[in-house]
Every structure is written in structure tokens, then in C-alpha cells.
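Protocol step 4 of 5: obtain the predicted structure for the target chain.
Materials: sequence only (see below). No template structures provided, no constraints applied. The aim of this step is simply to have a reference model before the mutagenesis design in step 5. Sequence pasted as it appears in the construct record:
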Amino acid sequence: AHYDYWDDKVRPSVLLESGADLLMYGMGEHQITELSERLANGENIHNIHDIRGTCYLTEPVNTPIGCAECPSFEQVSQNKEAYARATKIQYDHQDEIYGKTVIQRHGKLMLVQNPPAYSLTQEELDKIYSLPYTRNYHPSYEKFGGVPGIEEVKFSITHNRGCFGYCNFCSIALHQGRRITCRSEKSVLEEAERLTHMPDFKGYIHDVGGPTANFRNPSCEKQLKSGLCKGKKCLAPTPCKALKVDHSEYLDMLRKIRKIKGVKRVFIRSGIRYDYLMEDKNDEFIRELIKYHVSGQLKVAPEHCSAVVLDKMGKPHIEAYKAFQKRFYEITKGIGKEQYLVPYLMSSHPGSTLREAVDLALFLRDNKIRPEQVQDFYPTPGTISTCMFYTGLDPYTMEKVYVPKTAEEKAMQRALLQYFRPQNREIVRKALIKAGRRDLIGVLIPADTNSVRKGDSDWQKNQRKQNQKPKKKANRNRQK
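Step 4 output (C-alpha cells):
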């Protein structure tokens, strides 16, 4: 069962509502091939209950033993604490090594979710990317003028899958997993070579990345045998002591791509985990990244500056970004380039009050950052952040979490990130007053004392009029 933002309620499993016989989750390659073979061999789909990465419905009497049971659909749809507990159970078993079968009662039926499918091997991943993709949209879109977004991905290369960054607002941990798998260098170089022979290729490879571009290996050796740590993150709030940081293989691959005939530039646009990068004692990668792979702007994702909010996001604290920012501009200046960081920022995430939003506005001002775009948090099904949004609880601590939900407050938090825009002045003024930060009127936005401000009380308006009246000069020679 999952919370649906558009309906603003908990909905039952997609399997139940769709009426399908079987549901596949994750990336699906292992599931679809095994299922196809077994159906082709004459097996009845209603008897196929043992494929990893699939879900099925059954009579409760047929429920497998040794499962992790979530509170029922009826319970989670009526009780927010039950929903939070169910979220934790689902995430705790989303690991291909130790994850158990997860079950949840839906009325008279039992939903059974088998453990996740195993990650593809490098050979399997290479085979998938060797298939003859057209690298274009379907011809049916021609009559609509095509699909402009294809230009960003047409000449991009995916070299990895999975992400141990494990941000709370991201669903990659659910469908790709936290374990990193990657293609061989040979496979990636062959794809780069194929790009150079495409008729509209102009010499620019837009990206060599994935969910996180600079992840090429598992985060530690332990996870290969024991799985990734339950309820813990590899990088947040600080990097794990067992973290293995190594960019050498990725760097060597980028160097070889740059040497391919017909390739002018190779960019990295899918996102760099700067906190992971800063743990690398060898600075070759950061230097070559800045020198060869930035197209004037490098996109990174600090998301916020408040430790309270970043903890709820599952992100590292802002000190990691500040250290990277300092190093980035030192190297950029040293090689005589004019390049900039473009930070991804998010407003209204669970944990962010107006005070945290004001702190972020001040951080942006102090660092001379003026974002052209900001992302307002909206809950996507299944994530930990969505659980916090719906329940007001952190599923791992069961502590209460502040959640900005009203359209007015969300608009205020979003406007504070772009306080410098004239059209945002009035709503920023209201936000500062509501946050108890009148001292910043005249700092973040013009004071504009002659205008009547919407949202001010009659007392505030009268006080302003009194302050604007000319004061009588004091008679310093007054007799006593």
C-alpha cells in the first residue's frame, strides 16, 4: 500500500487495483526473461510464485513462512503510525542479500512481495547496452514536432546502475537498489565509438554517468557478502569509516573516451556526489573533472543548508558542500577558467520550517548564488520522505517531523530561495514577518517603507504612519 499525493490518501497495492496476475518491481530484466521462459514452457502464471522481484496475491492460508509482515492495508490507510512502521519494514528488506519476503494483508487476500531480484552482472549489463537501440524517439512523435528532450540523452552514455547515496526523497533505492553495478570499460568505449558514426553527432558526448556519475564500485567490501547496512547510509550525515573511495577506473575510462577520433568534448551532467569526491585523497579526478568535463557549469545537489532538513533528506551537512565549493573555485581559477557551480535546491521538504527556509535564503545571499530554478518538494510513492510528508513521522525514529503543507507556506518557502526577484518581494516580506525575521526586511528585500504591505495588521499600518510623521525638534536651550 502507498500514499498517493494526488488523491491525498493511501491506496492499495497496484497489483490489486490493476487486476494483473503478477507484478514485477525493480529494473525487471531477470524477472521478464525468467517469466517468459516459464510461460513458454507451459507453466500456469497463477502457480508462478517464486520469481525474485515479483509480487502476487494469494489466500492467507498459502502465505509463505518466515516473512516480514507489514500492518495491513486497512491499518495503514487509517493509522499513520502503522503506515510509518510499514515503510521501515519495506526499506529494511529492500536488499538482495538479506531481504526477506514482505507480506501485507489486503482484505481477504495476502499480498506477497518476493525479495528483490539480484543485480545484473557486468556481462549481463554489457549485453543489454549492446542491443541496437535507435537513440531516437518513436516516429509517431514527428507530427508533433518531435521530442526536444531527446537532445540531452541522445549522445549520453550510462556506465553504472544503483546508488548508495540513498537520499530519502529518491526512489532509486527501491527500483535500482543501493548496490553499484557497472558496465565494462570495453562496453562503454564501444558505445562512444558508435556515437561518432551517427550522422548528427557533432563531437560532443553530453554525459558519461548514471544515477550518480562518479560511483563505479561498491561503497565497501562488506556489502558484497552481507548486504548494505540496514537503516544506515554510506555518506550521510558523514561518510562511513568503511567507505572505499576510488575514481581511478572511471578516470581512466574518461581519458580513453577523450582520445576517440571524432570526440571533441566529454561532459558529465548526471550529477557528481561531491561528498564522495572530497573523500578521495588523490585529487587527479577533481582536477580533470574541472579541466575537461565541465561545460561552464557543474550541477551538484546540496539541496539545503540546514542540518535539521538535511538529516531528514538523508544528505550530508552543508560543510561538505562548502569544502567542495572552495576546492572547485580554487582549481578553476588556477587553470584560468571561468566556470560555476549550479546547486540543486529543494524547498518545503519535511523538517523545513520557515526559519530553515530563511536560513537557506541567507546562505544563498552570502554565497552569491541566485538559482534560476528551484524544486518544491512533492511526495512520490514509496519514499521515506513521502512517509514523513503523509504521517508527520520519521519512520526510523518515530519522532514527529514538521511538514509544510499549505499552498501559502510552500509558496513562501519557494519564494525565499529566489528572494532577489522583484515579483517575489511581497510574499518574501510576508514570510519574513511570519518567521519573526523583520530584521531582514531591507536586507533580503528592499525596505520600501512608503508602501502599504499586504498582510500587515491595522496596528502595523498605524505604527508605520506614526513613524513617518515629522518629529518635533528638541529645544536644547530649554530652561529648567
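Step 4 remarks: The two ends are 83 Å apart (CA to CA). The chain has a mean pLDDT of 93.
Proceed to step 5.
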